[in-house]
Amino acid sequence: MYRCRILCSALLFLLLSLPLWAANEEANRDPGNPLDQGGETCTSATAITTLPYCDTGTTANRINDYPVPCNTGSAAPDVVYTVTPPVTSVLSFSLCGSPYNTALTIWRGCPSAGGVLICCSDNVCGDDACCSGVTLLANVQYFVVVDGGSTPPNQGSYTLNVVQGESCPSTPCQSTCPYPNVENGGGKTMFCLVEPLPAATPFVDSWK
């Protein structure tokens, strides 16, 4: 019983610490740096390491590396993110509000190396994409491909918003940012955070 109390106390301390770790990590980001934006391929994919996550970028002048199985007519350029959750999580990935005709795919493993498609989205919110309520297994690497549909304009600037839960975010990004004086776009970093969740469920708010 004593060992159980010690173990439970240690686990609770770890869970309560997760939001603080993520907050410290984001506080150290340089708001003057260029956009993170997605990488060209799986090997250069931009890592998503905290939740909620919001990033802007562009697919213009990139290469069409990966398919859009739910829109086989698409030959749009794409960029790639990667996420490896430390705990099994239900997340929603949204491109809603992006100014071009977006598509979105999520793969368990890289699509060019036998990856398994777990979500393909096109024209969910207007002509934009959102994969909602996607279950990601703990310690498994996934690749999130920001893509375009078959109808022009199918490349350009995008906003990728990743949140906990089963619903697509209603806005392209959260309304409060750690760097409120940073231009939202125009080549600047935009990383938005919401208020922490209640202490009873801290593990769904942030990762480290």
What topology does this entry show?
Blueprint: H1 2-27, E1 46-47, E2 53-58, E3 79-83, E4 89-94, E5 102-108, E6 116-122, E7 130-136, E8 142-148, E9 157-164
Classify the secondary structure makeup into a structural class.
alpha+beta
How many beta-strand elements? 9
Overall tally of structural domains: 1
Portion in helices: 10-25%
Residue share in β-strands? 25-35%
Provide the CATH top-level class.
Answer: Mainly Beta
Number of helices: 1
Following the backbone from N to C, one meets helices and strands in this order, namely HEEEEEEEEE
The mean pLDDT is 75
Ranges where pLDDT stays below 50 over 5 or more residues in a row are 10-34, 175-208
Question: Main beta sheet, described?
Answer: 5 strands, mixed
Major sheet strand order = 1-3-8-5-6
* CATH fold call: Jelly Rolls
User: Rg from C-alpha positions?
Assistant: 17 Å
Shape: globular
How far apart lie the N and C ends?
A: 30 Å
Overall CATH architecture = Sandwich
What report would you give on this structure?
This protein is of the alpha+beta class and 208 residues long. It has a single domain (2-204), classed as Jelly Rolls. The protein has one helix and nine strands. The chain has one helix at residues 2-27, and strands at residues 46-47, 53-58, 79-83, 89-94, 102-108, 116-122, 130-136, 142-148, 157-164. A five-stranded mixed beta sheet has the order 1-3-8-5-6, with no helix packed on it. The longest helix is centred in the first third of the chain and has 26 residues, at 2-27. It is globular, with a radius of gyration of 17 Å. The protein starts with a helix and ends in a 44-residue tail after the last strand.
